[in-house]
Amino acid sequence: MSEQTTGKYQVEKTEDEWRAELGEERYQVLRQAGTERAWTGELLDESRAGLYTCGACGAELFQAGTKFDSGCGWPSFYESVRPEAVELLEDTSLGMVRTEVRCATCGSHLGHVFPDGFGTPTGDRYCMNSLALDFTPADDADPA
C-alpha cells in the first residue's frame, strides 16, 4: 500500500510498527497488498464452525458458514459478517480491473472479490489470503 492512512481507520500504526508486529510474510500480504501462492494457505481446507478475523487488527470479517470451496486455491467466502466490515476498492494493477478487499478497521489488504461465486446466495467470491486472516473455532470462542 503506497498511501498513508491518516485518520481514516480505527486502528492505525506506522508501517514500522506493522512490520514488527506482523513479521515479513504477513506484512507483505496485509500491508503491501501481496498475494500468497495458491493452494498453500493453512486456512484453505479449514472447515470447522467459527469466525475469521483480520490478521492485523483482529476485526471480525467472515463467519465460517459463508466459506465455500471455489476451487481457486484460496479461502473463499460469499459475504462478510457485515457490509461495513470490509472496504472495497478498485484495483487496476496487473493490467486488469479487480475489486480489492481491505479490512475496514485497519485498512489491511485481505484479497479480492469477484462476481463469480456461482451457486452461492450472493453470487460473490471473496477470495482471501490465509495470511491475512486468523481463525477462531466456534468451540474456542468465549461463551456469551
From TrEMBL:
List the record's Gene Ontology CC terms alphabetically.
Answer: cytoplasm
Q: Which reaction does it catalyse?
A: L-methionyl-[protein] + [thioredoxin]-disulfide + H2O = L-methionyl-(R)-S-oxide-[protein] + [thioredoxin]-dithiol
Q: Which InterPro entries match?
A: Met_Sox_Rdtase_MsrB, Met_Sox_Rdtase_MsrB_dom, Mss4-like_sf
Q: What top-level branch of life does the organism fall under?
A: Bacteria
- Keywords attached to this entry: Metal-binding, Oxidoreductase, Zinc
UniProt-listed Enzyme Commission number(s):
1.8.4.12
Q: Which cofactors are named for this entry?
A: Zn(2+)
Annotated ranges, domain MsrB: 15-138
Q: Per its UniProt entry, what is the enzyme's top EC class, as one word?
A: oxidoreductase
Q: Which GO terms describe its molecular function?
A: metal ion binding; peptide-methionine (R)-S-oxide reductase activity
Does the keyword section mention Oxidoreductase?
yes
Q: Which Pfam families match?
A: SelR
Tell me the Gene Ontology biological-process terms attached to this UniProt entry.
protein repair; response to oxidative stress
Query: Ligase: is it a keyword of this entry?
Result: no
Concerning its family, UniProt says: Belongs to the MsrB Met sulfoxide reductase family.
The name this protein goes by in its record: peptide-methionine (R)-S-oxide reductase
